[in-house]
Specification:
With 286 residues, the chain is of the alpha+beta class. The chain contains four helices and 18 strands.
Length: 286
């Protein structure tokens, strides 16, 4: 089985071209094996690039633990790059089917390569039942968003702002991006009972109203160098809490992502890099 290793701002995945070869029989099990950084290729997960009846292609994503993900902002940029550079779709605007709906891509060509991609990430969902979470705003109203709600975890109190970008996120603003926060509290919040489908957790330090630093604990993968849906959730949370502007530059460990929460259509747009690292052949029997 042939594969390609790609990343967006260091958020790396193994990609399988299912236009050219069959879909693996058990992609969840394959994701666990191939993502292992000691005994496999090593990645944050597995993404299958498949034909679609409703879009140019379908992105089928699995986290490193084999759990299925609805959407991946960094991965989908790589999907667009792959489709263009490997001659499957030679166009600079594409539609990609995901578990969170159809997403629109705009590809930026530099010479003969795609280096950056802009993704329409969709309209953020803020109702607790849509995230989903059992947490409620102080008003108790189902329609009110959870914004900086005090929450006890690991003997500490944090303030959670909950956003869904097609997948769940809990955003926490902090003074410093410490391992004690990310590696200590991240796993506990991910699997907290108040998040029935688990959650991604973003820890954010505000540099200015236009710029932040972020570290992220991803559901099913642990700490990653970047998270596209997480950066989108941070952009939304920053506006909701009055900390940042709708146009935001997010510094992740693996690079810079540019966000815009558009006031006209309420959609969040993400622009960032996409890179192909290497390709190979997976020899292990499926």
């Amino acid at each position: 089985m042939k594969f390609t290793k790609m990343h967006g701002a260091g958020n790396d995945y193994v990609f399988i071209d299912c236009f050219a070869q069959p879909i693996p029989r058990d992609p969840a099990a394959l994701a666990r094996r191939i993502s292992d950084r000691h005994f496999g290729v090593g990645s944050d997960g597995l993404i299958l690039i498949c034909p679609s009846k409703v879009a140019d292609a379908r992105m089928w994503m699995f986290n490193a633990d084999g759990s299925e993900g609805e959407m991946c902002g960094n991965g989908i940029r790589c999907v667009g790059k792959y489709l263009y550079e490997h001659g499957i779709w030679r166009k600079l605007e594409m539609t990609i089917e995901t578990g969170a709906g159809i997403k629109n891509l705009q590809l930026f060509l530099e010479g003969d390569r795609i280096r950056r991609v802009r993704v329409g990430m969709g309209v953020p969902r803020l109702r607790p039942d849509e995230i989903p979470t059992s947490l409620r705003a102080p008003s108790g109203k189902m329609e009110d968003p959870v914004v900086e709600l005090p929450y006890q975890v690991g003997g500490m109190e944090v303030k959670l702002t909950c956003v869904s970008m097609g997948n769940p996120h809990a955003v926490i603003f902090v003074e410093e991006l410490l391992d004690d926060w990310v590696l200590g509290l991240g796993p506990s919040i991910e699997r907290a009972e108040v998040f029935p489908r688990r959650t991604n957790v973003e820890f954010v330090r505000v540099l200015s109203p236009q710029e932040v630093e972020m570290r992220v604990w991803e559901r099913g993968s642990g700490e990653t160098l970047a998270c596209g849906t997480g950066a989108a959730a941070v952009c939304v949370a920053g506006v909701l809490t009055g900390r940042t502007q709708p146009r935001l530059k997010v510094h992740a460990l693996g690079g810079i992502l540019e966000l815009e929460w558009n006031s006209e259509d309420s959609e969040v747009y993400l622009t960032g890099p996409a890179e192909e690292v290497f390709w190979g052949e997976w020899l292990e029997a499926e």
